[in-house]
Amino acid sequence: MKSNYTGLWLLLTLALSVIVSFSFSDDFSVGGWTIKKAPVAETLFTEPDESALEMLDCELLPEQEIAQVEIEIDSVPKNIFLFGDSMTFNLALRLAKYAKQNGHQFHAVNWDSSNTKIWAETDTLSHYLTLYKPDYIFISLGSNEVYFKNPSTRLPYVKKILERLGDTPYVWIGPPNWNEDTGINDMLESTCKKGSFFRSQGMEFKRKKDKIHPTRESSALWIDSIMRWMPKSSHPILASEPSDSIGKVNANVVFLKALNK
Predict the structure, then answer these.
(1) Is the distance from CB of 87 to CB of 218 less than 8 angstroms?
(2) Which of 43, 84, 94, 159 has the most Cβ atoms closer than 10 angstroms to its Cβ?
(3) Residue 142, Cα to own-chain centre: how many angstroms?
């Protein structure tokens, strides 16, 4: 049986050899007919198309491995204003050092026991915005509303505060939850401009005896985390970590008395 196919295999091998050999030669004409060579040589030896390879690479790369483009950092020194509840003071101490390290000006207002309703319904915020004329703002509010069963009732106050900021870039620092969250963080994040809310919920804090306020050291680490996140924010600014030699810095903090609201 094998001998019956030997001649056929030899014939096929000869035909393939002729086709391959012809593929490396030029086209030629016989009796008005032009015989074109087969594209075997081009297929075997032509350099691959780079655009095709790039398309292939894009198709093969997992979506999560494609690098996200970060927003360019605003290198112009800012006039920073931090305002909020009793969490504000310890945050201000560390943030003031970042301001000095990076050439920013800094002021803060700490209003004990304040919440979004108080800041929205008084003219306090407007007063300090006019006084300090900030071009970058940090907000520390929501801690006194963590326990609210229906935090959506505070939505109008949050919107009013943000309206007063106008087009000024801001970062709303979410509360350092000390008990189960009832939705205040979700409400704040969905209301703030994308990239302008820092969720503190889930972070580990060392707290004071009241088991609510982070210690001064823990608050400093809190600010460090915020500034490391800064390049991912909607408007990143200069945020190099303060050097050990920077020494004491005046945080320019104004303290306001608590209101029964």
Answers:
(1) no
(2) 84
(3) 22
d(CA 82, CA 141): 11
Angle at 215 between CA 209 and CA 218, to 5 degrees: 140
d(CA 169, CA 236): 9
Q: Are 88 and 124 in contact (CB under 8 A)?
A: no
- DSSP letters for 64-99: GGSPPPPPPPB-S--EEEEEESTTHHHHHHHHHHHH
pLDDT tens column, 128-140: 999 999 999 999 9
Distance of alpha carbon 173 from alpha carbon 184, whole angstroms: 12
Give the CA distances from residue 182 to residues 46, 52, 108, 147, 151, in Å, rounded to whole numbers and listed in that order. 64, 51, 28, 7, 7
How does pLDDT run across 193-251, given as a tens digit for each residue?
Answer: 999 999 999 999 999 999 999 999 999 999 999 999 999 999 999 999 999 999 899 99
CB-based burial of residue 216 (10 Å sphere; 0-12 exposed, 13-18 middle, 19+ buried)?
middle
Here the tokens at position 157 are 């106050």
Residue 250 amino acid letter: N
Provide the token pair at 53: 């390879």
* The pairing of beta strand 33-35 with beta strand 28-30: antiparallel
- Which residues, including other chains, have CB under 8 Å from residue 116's CB and lie 6 or more apart? 141, 142, 145, 154, 157, 158, 161
Judged on CB neighbours under 10 Å (0-12, 13-18, 19+), 158 is: buried
- Its pTM stands at 0.74
